[in-house]
Amino acid sequence: MLATEGAPGPIGARTVDELSARLRALQAWSGVSYREIHRRVVRSRQERNVAEIPAYNTVYRCLSPGRCRLDVELVVDIARVLLDDEARVAEWRQAHQVVSGLAADASVVSVEALPDDPGAFTGRAAELTAALDSSTARGLLLVEGMPGVGKTTLAAHLAHRLIERGHGGEIQFAVNLRGHDPDRLPADPGAVLDGFLRRLGVSGSRIHGLDVCGRSALFRRLIAGKQALILLDNAASEEQVEPLLSSGPDCFTVVTSRRHLAGLPEARRLRLGVFSLAESLALLARTAGRAVVDADPGTARRIAELAGHLPLALAVLASRIKATPGWSLRDHLERLVEHRARLRLDDGVALALSSSYEAMGPDSRRLLRLLSVHPGRDFDQRAAAALAGVEPDEAARLLSELVRASLVQDRGQGRYDLHDLIRVLASDRAQDEEAPAVRRTALDGLFGYYRSAVASAATSYAPHDWLRWGDAVGMAEKLPAATDPATARAWLDRERPNLVATALAAADHGRPGYVTDMSMMLHYYLDTAGFFCEAETLHREAVRCAIDDDTRSRAYNVLGCVYWRLGCYANGRDAYERALDLARGVGNQKGVGSGLSNVALGHYRLGRYRDAIEHHLGALSIFVAIDNKPRQSTTLAGLGWSSLRLGRYSEALEYFLRSLEITRGLGDNGTFEEAYALANAGAAYELLGRRADARTHYEASLALSRQLGYPGGQSDALNGLGRLYLADGRVGWAVRCHREALELCDGIGNRPLTIEVRNDLGKALRQAGRPDLALEQFELALDEAKALDDRFELARAHAGLGAVRAQECAFEVAAQCWQRAFDLFEALDAPEAVDARKALDAVETTAELKGAELNDGSGRRESLPTAAP
Predict the structure, then answer these.
(1) Do 314 and 195 share a structural domain?
(2) Pairing of strands 139-145, 251-257
(3) Does residue 854 have a pLDDT over 50?
(4) Cα–Cα distance between 67 and 75 in angstroms, integer?
(5) Does pLDDT of 865 surpass 50?
(6) Which of 46, 239, 356, 819 registers the highest number of CB atoms within 10 A of its CB?
(7) Strand 415-417 to strand 139-145: parallel, antiparallel, or no bridges (unpaired)?
(8) What DSSP state is assigned to residue 360?
């Protein structure tokens, strides 16, 4: 090994890509080839008995530019084999933790509809005309200018004028890119694209499998040919904006930025300066009153000069003038002059903001100061009340005063936020005027509110007895109304960026219990809604912050679930095994049972069905001993599916029926689990040939899933009904059911179920006489099954491709497909191996006959058999 003195280090890296660049610099310094690094990492892990052995491509990608995430253990191992200095290696682990925290903050982004039209719009007539004229050519418009010059207001007004002219009729997005937020990093373009794609109907799991380039390409493909209008506010750089742009002629994008984004040469540019004198007076007159300005135009001109003719400063001063009808303009001017002299303020914005702040009542000033400590971007009156320790009605009154003073922005629908410059002022004043203990108390109040609100929403969203998080005694009047799954989901969707941001902030403010509580309470929502990126960020932070092994075990369990959803089975298995070890260490029987059940899931996904059954039986004995009915039900379901895969259909049915009996006792009006259990029983009846019983259970599952608004259950039941229709010869109905099931799967991002549905749809399409469409579904299933290492569905995809190729008389290709299917089914000890062997023999025989026919040269065509999957 080389001496480590002079080796490039990771300190100072702020992004994942920067950290990867530092790692490449270390590789270049060492002179060790990528192949040798891979060999050393493998050898190091083998010597330490680490089960996970990375492929060469995994190591290569870790050292490649353009990374949006890095495996911390691989980064550390690469550093270890190049440095052989544990102190230096520890720096890389620490740097990764720092970068991950920064990346987590940058990944919390909210994509919204267009903001409301500002209404009465003053000034900027020439600029607005130029912008509207440029819209005829579509493309990109950059609105650039200094802080407070009115870029966002102009862009919002322009967007609504463009809609009036017929632009953006199909798609309208707006997002604050936080390019100059005083407290938070600029929005990560990958996270922005995640929000765009979700609004376009793309599932979370599909998005998560794409890097920034892949997301950008998919976004551009989906909006191609659609009338789209996109507002990108407060951009930081060309690198942040470029992936978010569409090249299509029907999309118009408006970008605002304080910087001159010279790297976007194709854009039309609108450079905003300060208001002219006429525009300044018009703004003062519009807000304070024409008569007030006309009565003393000279003083009005002097006030405009002191404000630097900046629209933000003028708006704040005009609001103050309107709120004090007993004051003359000269009184306001004298106050401004005195204020400037006392505080030595020369900047117009600082003078206007400071003057208006000082003129507010003490309660309003205090609320503004405390709003600046909110870790999120926007808020409602309940969050404001929690920060200030007042009732919601009082918070609403104070917010109204601050809105009238133009110190808080009303975003509509009960949402508020602060302009960046006002946030800086409020934060500075909070530092000067609020003791650290007071600021901590305000944050604790906010954390307490969000904890109670999430508990209420989570209980309504998933009304299962074992997911209840307390009834928030005494908090009912302070919590949002979330009495049913739909309103709970709407509230969670709206507040999700704040909930994740506050959790990350709580970790930095010494509140680890809040982080782990939010991880547990938000798990079900983030999982079912497909917000896997936020879930991974939150649960990883919970693992880091957990104050004891019991809590850390639970955090590893939910983190493992996210990894499974993402198809990261090795990481998922590792998380589950760590959770199990920790639960055993603290003697948490429920945790041990959950760990065994989750490890069983890992075995199931990898086709180790007997191992899965062994672990499920261990879990079941624990859940029976502690009388945990819900977990008994899910474990019985796991036993049923592992038994099905081994061909033990009667045994599987028994497990499923026992699970169903338990779920029917969990809720008066049916639960998600009952719908799932009904579909499971239907699958067992189907394989036993009892199609009438199967249909009854699938239809009951479908009806209950629709009643509960449970898309996963609907998809599962529809897919089962499609198979029954196909068995009855009703091919058209089968195709319709499978297509509806696939649409539902895509919406929620359930990747394993999506693969199963594609395979079933492919079979139906083949029998419907559409081998071209069938081939497409089987190939998609094949690719997705490979990505997830789902060996059972991979075998089914190969079988489907074999059947299509045989139907096309491509017998040699068909034989290759059936051989792969047979090998996989046999390795899994699955009964489907018998049918695969028969089909393989049939196509091989047919291929031999076909070859003999060609060698005969007679030109006769015989009716050749076609293998069926």
Answers:
(1) no
(2) parallel
(3) no
(4) 12
(5) no
(6) 356
(7) unpaired
(8) S
Structure tokens of 70? 């890095």
pTM, whole model, 2 decimals? 0.70
> Is residue 369 scored above 70 in pLDDT?
yes
**Residue 336, burial from CB neighbour count under 10 angstroms (0-12, 13-18, 19+):** buried
3-state secondary structure of 422: helix
Quote the domain boundaries for residue 140.
111-272
Same domain, 165 and 86: no
Q: Which residues of 136-156 are buried (b: 16+ CB within 10 A; e: fewer)?
A: eebbbbbbbbeebbbbbbbbb
According to DSSP H, which parts of 308-418 are helical? 311-323, 329-343, 348-359, 362-371, 381-388, 392-404
Nearest Cα residue to 521 out of 587, 592, 447, 595: 447
> For residue 142, which phi and psi values (nearest 5 degrees)?
-100, 125
State how far the Cα of 594 lies from the Cα of 577, in Å rounded to an integer.
Answer: 11
Name the 3-class secondary structure at 144: strand
Q: Of 106, 130, 165, which residue constitutes the final position of a domain?
A: 106
User: Does residue 486 carry a pLDDT above 90?
Assistant: no
Task: Give the residue-averaged pLDDT of 122-144.
Answer: 79
Bridge partners, residue 112, by sequence: 174
What string of DSSP letters covers 235-260? Answer: E--HHHHGGG---STTEEEEEEESS-
- Distance in angstroms (rounded) separating the CA atoms of residues 505 and 503: 5
d(CA 599, CA 615): 7
> CA torsion angle for 761, 764, 766, 767 (degrees, to 10)?
180
Residue 749 confidence (pLDDT):
64
Confidence band of 585 (pLDDT split at 50, 70, 90): very high
Compute the 3-state secondary structure of the chain and give helix, strand, coil in percent, each to the nearest 5.
Answer: 70, 5, 25
Beta bridge partners of residue 142, listed in sequence order: 255, 269
- For residues 261 and 233, the answer to whether their CB atoms sit within 8 Å is no
Neighbours of 481 (CB within 10 A): 12
* Beta carbons of 780 and 821 less than 8 angstroms apart: no
Does residue 236 form part of some domain? yes
The CA-to-CA distance between both ends of the chain, in Å, stands at: 57
Residue reference for tokens 């229709």: 725
pLDDT of residue 102: 57
pLDDT 10s digits, 609-620: 999 999 999 999
Q: Is 175 in the same domain as 73?
A: no
Query: Hey, is 415 helix, strand or coil?
Result: strand
Burial class for 744, CB neighbours closer than 10 Å (0-12, 13-18, 19+): buried
Is 262 in contact with 241 (CB distance < 8 Å)? no
Q: How many domains does the chain have?
A: 5
Mean pLDDT of the chain: 84
